[in-house]
Amino acid sequence: MPTMSNSSITTSGSEKTTPPASQPSSIKSVELPTRSPKLKPQNGQPVANAEGQLKAPEKTSVKDRLTRMFSNKGEIPKTTAAGDSSSAPSAAAQARVVNGAPTPRAPTLPVRKPSTTDKAPQSTASAGAPKAAAASQRYVVNASLQGGHEHHLKGSKRQEKLSDMWKTLLGRKHEQAPEADLSLVSSWVDTLKQEKDSLAGDRRGGPSATSTLIEKYGKCQEVVGRGAFGIVRISHKKVDNGEKLFAVKEFRRRPEETEKKYSKRLTAEFCISSSLRHPNVIHTLDLLKDSKGDYCEVMEFCSGGDLYTLVLAAGKLEVQEADCYFKQMMRGVEYMHEMGVAHRDLKPENLLLTSHGALKITDFGNGECFRMAWENDAHMVSGLCGSAPYIAPEEYIDREFDARAVDVWACGVIYMAMRTGRHLWRVAKRDDDEFYERYLEGRRDEEGYGPIESLHRARCRNVIYSILDPNPTRRITASQVLKSEWGREIKLCKAGEEGL
After folding, report:
1. Does the active-site annotation cover 345?
2. Worst-scoring range by mean pLDDT, 42-56, 336-350, 447-461?
3. 172: Cβ–Cβ under 8 A, 6 or more apart, which residues?
4. What is the pTM of this model?
5. Residue range 209-255, pLDDT digits in tens
6. Which catalytic reaction applies to this protein (predicted)?
7. Is 249 assigned to a binding site?
8. Annotated catalytic residue: which of 290, 345, 402, 407?
9. Whose CA is closest to 487, among 327, 304, 357?
10. C-alpha closest to that of 297 among 272, 323, 279
11. β-bridge mates for residue 296, sequence order
12. In sequence order, what are the residues at sequence separation of 6 or more whose Cβ sits closer than 8 angstroms to the Cβ of residue 199?
């Protein structure tokens, strides 16, 4: 059963350990071994098949229907049918071969034949509005608005939301659902039990106030998130027209961690996060010491909570609602990768929301600089870190891998969690997880993999299959996701576009 923390901002640890399948809690990585000087193109020729040796399927498989999409970076795809590079060429592909060699042609995005579950999208001006209004008004369709919709997220404290959900859960008699161990609710209950003992202490504690901290950002009060080595509180700063809120992350020193290592770890995280400026990345303002010598990182406050809590409360998100959050996330990831930074711990808990529905990536405790400003080539990275359901399969297999491909994989798992309210698997290891093994088999089968096939839209399904390609050299990039036909047709609301 995957264990997911319920903190809106978690402080990432860093020990390189492989989690057992039974307890896939967040796994962290500290000191990385030597990196190779250059990184092979992310969409180059496959160097290894992460799916293992598979027999050629007799039927036309999902893998056959998906090519190595967008093999040239920045290319905008066209919708045509094409075969997978590892399979025999299709009739269309053979028609492009001249004298045994393929003629140059721009890469294309294959499209599957519409299945019986394909449905035409509803009109945003009519059919969607009543359904959105019924969802507690958290998501409202309005054709007159930018993007055709808007989000309204309650500003209640995260712990209050979780407490209300816990009371509701206790008041119901649930029947055991098949494969219930993959549900987000199941993971949350486990995490809540583990954190129960620490709640009282967190409420009483807080950073030891200094004149600088109070003068600049006000007094720290209620807890809005917690992790293994720190908690996050709201700081209230009085201003002329009321008060301004900040999020203050209090770092705790790890057991047996020296002052030097403690300082180096926090400085590294701050240097990464404070250098990023994007509407869909959290704005980090300051790093201060309190009177006890503990570090506090000050960030903008997102009153809408985190994506994990939202999905948990909603069960699953509406199609356009999830698409908007997904595109915001991909925009933030694309920007980070362009800046030479990989997150390496993307999960719903680390995606914060404003009350208007702007999504912001946070918690760079596992952040990786895979390319310095003066470098042209990226470095491979190593070490296992992240939360088990979101960790890419190559992290378990390869000594070194592309940190960007790892982030993209996590984004695909997050989208499926938004749409289904469940994890796809506990851990992406064929021999250790029956659900992941079913996914690999589904990629080879004509019918595909059930949870992804249930998305109903062929363009969406094709992109998700390509994001969740077990072979990282075939996996598409964040930029290519945004330039895909599905990515381009997703409409962002004004808040998501501008980070409001």
Report:
1. yes
2. 42-56
3. none
4. 0.71
5. 556 788 888 888 888 877 666 788 899 988 888 889 999 998 888 88
6. L-threonyl-[protein] + ATP = O-phospho-L-threonyl-[protein] + ADP + H(+); L-seryl-[protein] + ATP = O-phospho-L-seryl-[protein] + ADP + H(+)
7. yes
8. 345
9. 327
10. 272
11. 250, 288
12. 159
